[in-house]
Amino acid sequence: MTKDITYSIETLGSLTGLSQRTIRYYIQVGLVSRPEGQGRGSRYTNQHLGELLNVAKLASQGFSLEAIRRIVTEEPNQGQLRPAQGTIAVRSHIYLAPGVELVISPEESKLSPMEVRLLINETLKAVKDILDAKNNS
After folding, report:
1. Structural domain tally of the chain?
2. 3 state SS of 40
3. Residue 24 CB coordination number (10 Å)
């Protein structure tokens, strides 16, 4: 059985783009599970990362924190909550070269943050190699 990767709150903040204060608040109000351990020894897992990304996605869609609390604590298909108007999707846009952009949906791709970094780094190398070969020919 593979041991789950754990993160410090600093790393979790970097991966989610949320401040440590916001992460602690989300835990305090019950939007995110409590960490493993306490104080400086607190560790966060991929479950915490997923919960935080879900809360951030719902907030970006116009849900209030109270509505998000109801969504994350209810059984699937029980809530009748709807976002404000329109749909907003969380996507990462990585500029690779003029006219070349990589778009990643963290939720849909099911890639871990480390896999996303690897994908971006390898894609950047490939684009650089192609452009260098084109410029040298």
Report:
1. 2
2. helix
3. 15
